[in-house]
Amino acid sequence: MFIQTEATPNPATLKFLPGRVVLPEGTFEARDAAGAERSPLATALFSVPGVSGVYFGHDFISVTKADGVNEWPQVKPAVLGAIMDHFQSGRPVLAEGTALAEDETEEFYDEADHDTVATIKDLLETRVRPAVAGDGGDITFRGYRDGIVYLEMKGACSGCPSSTATLRQGVQNLFRHFLPSVREVQAI
């Protein structure tokens, strides 16, 4: 098994590409060992000293290391080993009955803004999420109120130093271009 790695804009996160589907649909994120218990793979990754977060996409795994614990040259071999061992064992990525990330948080918006929200979701799905996934993360719609779009950053994007610039200069400008009623984009 050959696992490729890619740097992300977040220096604390590396993207691992195992060359196979990680999750056929949806995403999974664990920000601590307790959250990792719903996934045998996440549990294995959290057993690596220095790992502080994991995110699973369709065909990638983003792993975040804690600041000041170890550097990537010390952490990366153990992460690669945990991923390889997991996939060679044939165990599932998620424990049976585990809800995926999209199912966990309710959206909020006024029903009168339905058309605006539909356009926001379409722009996210077709233009933003593919680019963000390329960097090992995800961005999801959480709400819209009074001209403000609320989005959640996940994976490599969560806590990334450049995520604010991505939201303000990229996503916010895109939304404003197509939807003049959008005043601002905020991460929650």
TrEMBL record:
Residues 3-90 form the Scaffold protein Nfu/NifU N-terminal domain. Belongs to the NifU family. The lineage of its organism: Bacteria, Pseudomonadati, Pseudomonadota, Alphaproteobacteria, Hyphomicrobiales. One of its GO terms (molecular function) is iron-sulfur cluster binding. Gene3D superfamilies: Fe-S cluster assembly (FSCA), Scaffold protein Nfu/NifU, N-terminal domain. GO terms for biological process: iron-sulfur cluster assembly. It comes from Methylorubrum thiocyanatum. This is Fe-S cluster biogenesis protein NfuA.
